[in-house]
Amino acid sequence: MTPDVIVAGGGVIGTAIAHQLARRGARVTVLDHAAPGQATAASAAMIAPDADAGIGPLRELAVESARLYPALCAELLDRTGLDSGLRENALLLVAWSEEDERDLRRRRHRLEQAGVASAWLDPGRLRDVEPALAAGLQGGLHLQGQRQVDAPALLHALSRAAADLGVSFRSEEAHRLVIEGDRVTGVQAGANKLSAGEIVIAAGAWSGSLAADLRQPMPVRPIRGQMVGLSPPTSLLRTMCFSSHVYLLRKAAGWIYVGATEEDVGFDSSPTAAGVRDLLSGAVALAPALEQAKLSHVAAGLRPATPDGMPVIGRMPGWSGITIATGHFRDGVLLAPITAELVGDLVEHRRPRLPVDAFDPARFLLRAA
User: Fold this and answer.
1) Whole-number mean pLDDT of the chain?
2) Angle at the Cα of 88 (from 83 to 94), degrees rounded to 5?
3) Residue 135: is it exposed, middle or buried by C-beta count within 10 angstroms (0-12/13-18/19+)?
4) pLDDT value, residue 366
5) Residue 320 DSSP symbol
6) What whole-number distance in Å separates Cα of residue 136 and Cα of residue 139?
7) For 12-36, how does the pLDDT look when each residue is reduced to its tens digit (9 = 90+)?
8) What would the DSSP string read from start to end of 266-285?
9) Does residue 261 or residue 233 have the better pLDDT?
């Protein structure tokens, strides 16, 4: 049976979209190339919109997506019995230098403008809140009410729930679009030509090459992010800790994520000695007890980046049957629930409940003109 929608991309964005569309009654097929480098596999999965200093459309998107998470994870647990690892965590942004402190105080002012309460902690109070931190820090910004999930667990739960709703997952790469006139009617996956009423490109860092068939700019490029997992000798970290060099995040199992690099190296998703060295150095400097931690694992993913740092969510101008959802960079997990809802509205030719003008693919066409 021909599906109503084909979603090209089986990461957290594509799978969340498939799940949302299936909840609305659509027949959905997901195609995923299953290549290494998927950003979800190397995500710390912080549901922390206040970690970013921005104010504007992207923040509005992030705050609403974070609000959706408790209901989504409860629904997934009820349907599949799988726990996505959602739990509350305070956020601590720390300053090593006077320049860091100035930046954080400016950030605090912007957050206050957005109605977000925070507390400035002097060095003594900082270590009362987070005893694992090193001496010599200038202070820090403390924000309550943030969350995290477990990225692999979330993706597994979304996939199971989507499959339970009838979504078909195929381990095939959509390598080109099938076009008739000004309409996208399907995709070519290997030797198979697959048709659908609507196509959604949600292939992360690979989205640009697939969208090239539309002969319009889609400047999404891969940025490698490396991460290290550590198993500390004792329980460490009460908060999610950010410095200007690394972040530290303790997962429910007790091990600690250290992230993350940002490297413009094309589609090379291999971890490197230099990347691991820099992460470990930053981690031990921030929390000295981690010097005795055991190295648990190393991961790297390719994040989809755009020139303006904004995701791409919208219908492709001049074409019918095609919607784009990519360019979420480091915020794919955070933005997955709201992206899925917005794409669901677009595919159904309904006005999205949040404005998407700032994320419209047409912005690249206008800049290229």
Assistant:
1) 93
2) 135
3) exposed
4) 60
5) B
6) 9
7) 999 999 999 999 999 999 999 766 5
8) TT-----HHHHHHHHHHHHH
9) 261
Residue 354 DSSP one-character state: S
Task: Using DSSP, state whether 318 is helix, strand or coil.
Answer: coil
Q: Is the pLDDT of residue 115 over 80?
A: yes
H helix intervals, 114-252: 123-129, 151-164, 207-211
Angle at 213 between CA 208 and CA 217, to 5 degrees: 50
pLDDT in tens, 172-183: 989 999 999 999
CA-based nearest residue to 326, from 341, 351, 343 = 343
C-alpha of 185 from chain center: 28
Q: Spell out a b/e string for 175-188, using b for 16 or more CB atoms within 10 Å of the CB, else e.
A: bebbbeeeebbbbb
Query: Which residue in this structure is represented by tokens 């755009």?
Result: 306
CATH of 5-69+152-219+308-368 given 3.40.50.150, 3.40.50.300, 3.40.190.10, 3.50.50.60 = 3.50.50.60
Report the candidate in 30, 18, 60 with the shortest Cα–Cα distance to residue 311.
60
Q: Which residues of 29-54 are buried (b: 16+ CB within 10 A; e: fewer)?
A: bbbbbeeebbbbbbbbbbbbbbbbee
